[in-house]
Amino acid sequence: MEPEGSPSLPMIDEIHSNGGINLCDGDVDDEPSIDGTNTTTTTNNRPIISSGEQLDVEAYGGLYQGRTKIMRLLFIAESCEGNPAMRLEALRMAHDEIKKGENTQLYREVVQKIDGELGPNYAMDSAWCDSVDRRADQKKEKLENELNAYRTNLIKESIRMGYNDFGDFYYAHGALGDAFKSYVRTRDYCTTSKHIIHMCLSAILVSIEMGQFTHVTSYVSKAEQSPEALDPVTAAKLRCAAGLAHLEAKKYKLAARKFLETGSELGSHYNEVIAAQDVATYGGLCALASFDRAELKSKVIDNVNFRNFLELVPEVRELINDFYSSHYASCLDYLGNLKANLLLDIHLHDHVETLYDQIRNKALIQYTHPFVSVDLQMMANAFKTSVAGLEKELEALITDDQIQARIDSHNKILYARHADQRNATFQRVLQTGNEFDRDVRSMLLRANLIKHEYNLRAARKH
Amino acid sequence: MNSLEGVVVQIQGLSSSAGDISRLHVILKQAEESLRSESTRLSPILNQLDPSNHSLGYLYILEACTSAPVSKEQAAMLVPYIARFISYCAPEQIRLAPEKFIAVCKRFKDQVMLLGTPMRGVAPLQAAVRKLQNSSEHLTTLHPEFLLLCLLAKCYKTGLSILEEDIFEVDQPRDLFLYCYYGGMICIGQKHFRKALELLHNVVTAPMSSINAIAVEAYKKYILVSLIHNGQFSTSLPKYTSSAAQRNLKNHCQPYIELANSYSTGKIAELEQYVRTNGEKFESDNNLGLVKQAVSSMYKRNIQRLTQTYLTLSLQDIANTVQLNSPKEAEMHVLQMIQDGEIFATINQKDGMVRFLEDPEQYKSCEMIERIDSSIQRIMSLSRKLTTMEEQMSCDPQYLAKAGRERQRFDFDDFDTVPQKFNI
What we know:
Chain B: It is found in: Cytoplasm; Nucleus. Chain B: One of its GO terms (cellular component) is COP9 signalosome. Chain B: Residues 192-361 form the PCI domain. Chain B: Keywords: Cytoplasm, Nucleus, Signalosome. The structure holds two protein chains of two kinds. Chain A is mainly alpha-helical. Chain A is built from 21 helices and four strands. A four-stranded antiparallel β-sheet of chain A has the order 1-2-4-3. The termini of chain A are far apart. By secondary structure, chain B is mainly α. Chain B has helices at residues 2-13, 18-37, 43-46, 55-66, 72-88, 91-94, 98-114, 119-132, 142-153, 156-163, 173-189, 193-205, 213-230, 243-252, 254-265, 268-277, 279-284, 288-309, 315-322, 327-340, 366-395, 397-405, and strands at 138-139, 169-170, 310-314, 345-348, 353-356. In chain B, the strands form two sheets. Chain B has a three-stranded antiparallel β-sheet with strand order 3-5-4. In chain B, strand 4 (345-348) and strand 5 (353-356) form a beta hairpin. In chain B, helix 9 runs parallel beside helix 11 (173-189) and helix 16 (268-277) runs antiparallel to helix 18. The radius of gyration of chain B is 29 Å and the shape is elongated. Chain B starts with a helix and ends in a 19-residue tail after the last helix. The A-B interface holds A 395, 398-399, 406-411, 415, 420, 422-423, 426, 429-430, 433-434, 436-438, 440-450, 452-453 and B 166-171, 173, 176, 198, 201-202, 205-207, 209, 240, 305, 308-314, 317, 351, 353, 356, 358-359, 361-363, 368, 371-372, 375-376, 378-379, 382, 385-386, 389. Strand 3 (405-408) of chain A pairs parallel with strand 3 of chain B, so a sheet runs across the interface.
């Protein structure tokens, strides 16, 4: 490699070390164990998504509560095909969680999936189902009666509470559409901005569960327009929701910005939707995939607020630092390790491939940026791939105009190529001149034809 | 007999000055009928007249001679007369009766084709075109006839000389369509694809109230030439195309549009497959040769793309990327492209490597400066033309009447003196 300017010795060592011994201090103590003796974390949040090791389903489930916990566990069960132990664990936890609630539909589904593999305790408990359903009907009647009473009395606050209770009821029983409608109905009876915010948050929650993220965005903006200042926790919740909506819409840059702006007061207050670790992971990965270097430094690495989140997922923190300091091999290693567990995440799984590709491309571009010529063999070592594969990747990037370089396939060297502005300008000028010439001539010809036709028509008329 | 003699005498007598010629013209017009009736006996009379002095009379008699259908022997006899006439006639005289001149030339062309020797007609018709034109920007009905003869006789270079001139004035739209179509074909024959594209584009986008067969055929060739020259084709026609064309052209050219789609996927095997299955359709339009050129242009496009990405590449890799069968074939293609000036490269046969070079043009030479200068001059003259045209248009009474009608009734800011209603 020939870096521009005179290289200092330590830099050469660092550059060589990309392909050689891995000197990053991040992964020396990267031996996460389930008993939580990891020294890199200070709080009692254990590193849940960790390298190489299987996802600890119990700890993972412990991060969340409510319906999202059940959905996530079910998703894990569905996705880990080759791992029956994890699958059964997830199903068991889901079953226990559902039993605490009142959703008989989900219960039936889970029992069917378990299929008796967990023993007699987890077989279909029809008695429980029936009793829950009966209670549900009774409660529904009661709520209806109350609501009608309130409506005749025309007391706004009570009507609002009534609709809210209905919404909660439907949500607990899994009728998400009805829940959403009930929550939205409270809008007409909201008097203070606190009410509005409450309505928005409920609507957002249900929309996220339903997967309708357009509603999420609109309700987030509605809540943020409230005249009163929002308290930090609510503000953080709204940011997270907005971030999730952008993530689903594949707008990674916007999603990253929202996640990075989330205040650390969030803690575990929003764990019916998202955990703090998720904020760190989603925000970190989206930022890495979509921000340029300057933004990455200012918004992520120097961001004191976000540092609190990154503490919870030290792997993501390490990989961001590695990327910024050009230790691409270890960065890509971390990413590889995280991948299996990220594929089990309900929101992120279909974006993992895209984000990884974008991060890898950025790493390649950043690697070649400072040099006039790069030895492909060394670069292949740095990225832990073969020269042929690297050549293919670089070819795609060059064709896409993301790297300005040309490949010397004979000697396996990449040469930077800076377009000659002067020649390009001359070419463009001549071309524009020709096009103008051609277009004006055809235009004059057409005008002549039209005039001729017009004259013909005029002659015929007379 | 007498009237015929009388006509000849008149011609000989009244062919000296302009005033005489106009009187002669009147007389000839009156005598037209009688001339026609005597068509069979007119040929000996021609020997009494001199084509260069008595052009108008000669023309009328020739026209009467040829008004009846002729047999091959008669054609063989008449052709030299007409050819001589065309080369010697006086332009001012024949411009008094242009339709007659055009009719004579057309029949001349038919006779030449009847005799199976289109080459004989090329030079005379070229002269005829020059004599009939008011200016070099004027398109006559003879232009397409001339180009047709060039095509049939395969004298493409002669045709090109006429095509070099810009056309701004057109007599009949049909002439323009045929002219551009034949002209496009000649340019394709000479591999001047840029000019061919321009001419075919003019046909396709010309104002027309209803679709015509010339435009359809031209569109088919346009698609193919566009693929060869630009490597891409967009089915959207520009805004100024007539609505008739926009609606109907695509329906008539379906196989070609599908060919263009197949081309854009970049897979040569698919393209060749498509060409094989639809070979008869292309054959029946006489476009199979052009289609094959389009297919081979795809290889060129792919190799050109490689020059953007690589500095050196082995012939084996080129063969693999461009889907050729062997490095030998790749070498042939690259060699051909280097010779045609389409890429800049050197082939190292020992290593089997190709080294791609930058375009050596530095834009610093005298020729380049001359080129730029002449382009600037051209464009300035075009601009002047545009300005004069606009000035003419603004003074045109019909335009003013229409503009005056649509003007705002109450315009306090400008009290100009154009009256609101313009009655002339």
